[in-house]
Amino acid sequence: MKKEFHIQPLSAWLKVDRPILISGPCSAESEAQTVTTCMQIRALNKVHVLRAGIWKPRTRPGQYEGAGLPGLDWLIKAKKETGLPVTTEVATAAHVEAALKAGVDILWIGARTTVNPFSVQEVADALKGVDIPVMVKNPVNPDLELWMGALERLHRAGIKTMAAIHRGFSSFEKGPFRNAPMWELAIEMKTRLPELEMICDPSHICGNRELLSFVAQKGLDLDMSGLMIESHINPDVALSDAKQQVTPANLGKLLDGLIVRKASVNNKTFKDTLSILREQIDQIDDELMNKLAARMKISEQIGTYKRENGVTILQVNRWEEIIHTRLAQGRAMGLTDEFVSDMLKLVHNESIQVQQKVMNQTAERV
Ligand code: PEP
Ligand code: MN
After folding, report:
1. Which fold has domain 2-256?
2. 135 lines ligand 1 (CB under 6 A)
3. How many CA atoms within 13 Å lie on the side-chain side of 149?
4. Can you give the pLDDT at residue 47?
5. Ligand 1 close to Cβ of residue 51 (< 6 A)
6. Residue 154 exposure: Cα atoms within 13 Å on the Cβ side
7. Are β-strands 134-137 and 106-109 bridged in parallel, bridged antiparallel, or unpaired?
8. Atom of ligand 1 nearest to the CA of 228
9. 53 CB within 6 A, ligand 1
């Protein structure tokens, strides 16, 4: 798919430098709330695109489901008052038609829609022959194929300007975030489609105001192309996502506090120093690979020896001893427990597989 995928970056379409900043209320609730919030955001002189949800996909019934068509008029009024482009979420052909007719500049597909190929296809079909940028949020579940599939359906419908939005993933275990960031998936997506700009949505990752700036900074440090952050003139009484929205004034403070680092600099000393350090990393990786291969060879010998003596592969005491000693050693060397334990689990699982293979060889012979 990658070869025939030609994406025009959203930043080029907007004619802005990284990071693209998108903000506005979770939902358009009234004309006054939408327009005032957007005007105050505009006054910060930092935000490039205004957002507001018009049709809200709610997890449970009985919650605020958006203002519908009147909300579109409020958003367009905000566009006229501020001179900024506006974006909203679409999930059906009817949403697309109404948003296009009203003059919405950019569309986005929400996380609950990206999971459903029927809905994504319906949106893509409604967009055939239309030249409008579309941003695609990651699906609620950690499935890169669904995310790619949605982009591909839009691309096939002729959409050229696209961006992805990383808003975290649902998980059964409740951690500090509303949606687990699983940064590695966003990075994998960026690796698969380097020309696709990725916008981080700290609001939906966090689900609360406290962690917003930490996540926004982390997104920028991972070279995300922009941020989408929800803002409301009076967050505490917001009809949706009250806990995660910030006032425009606090949005300004948050944005002021962020450090935008470049992906690279055009400076010879920097490049030379970086390449020396990278050579050292290459060297260490080479040693690691050799050591891992040597370790697996020994596992194979252990497997043969256990087989000859009729002993089981897994010996819990030995595994506990490994974990215990290595964690203590790692701690003394400044490595985190999480890293050491994840790494050991991977190595140990592979070791078991190797020994299993040796055992199976006998089974075949018997
Ligand atoms: C939103 O942006 O308000 C929204 C509903 O987000 P998500 O699709 O990420 O849940
Ligand atoms: Mn929201």
Report:
1. TIM Barrel (3.20.20)
2. no
3. 14
4. 98
5. no
6. 32
7. parallel
8. 2
9. yes
Atom of ligand 1 nearest to the CA of 204: 9
d(CA 328, CA 321): 11
CATH pick for 268-365 out of 1.10.300.10, 1.20.59.10, 1.10.10.10, 3.40.50.2000: 1.20.59.10
Strand partners for 27: 53
From 26, 90, 232, the mutation candidate for ligand 1 (largest count of ligand atoms within 8 A of CB) is: 26
Radius of gyration of the chain from its Cα atoms, rounded to whole angstroms: 25
**Residues in the chain, overall count:** 366
Total-model pTM: 0.83
Q: Where in the chain do CATH 3.20.20.70 domains reside?
A: 2-256
Q: If you take atom 4 of ligand 1, which residue's CA is the nearest one?
A: 110
Cis peptide before 19 (omega within 30 of 0): yes
Residue 363 confidence class, pLDDT cut points 50, 70, 90:
low
Mean pLDDT throughout 59-64? 90
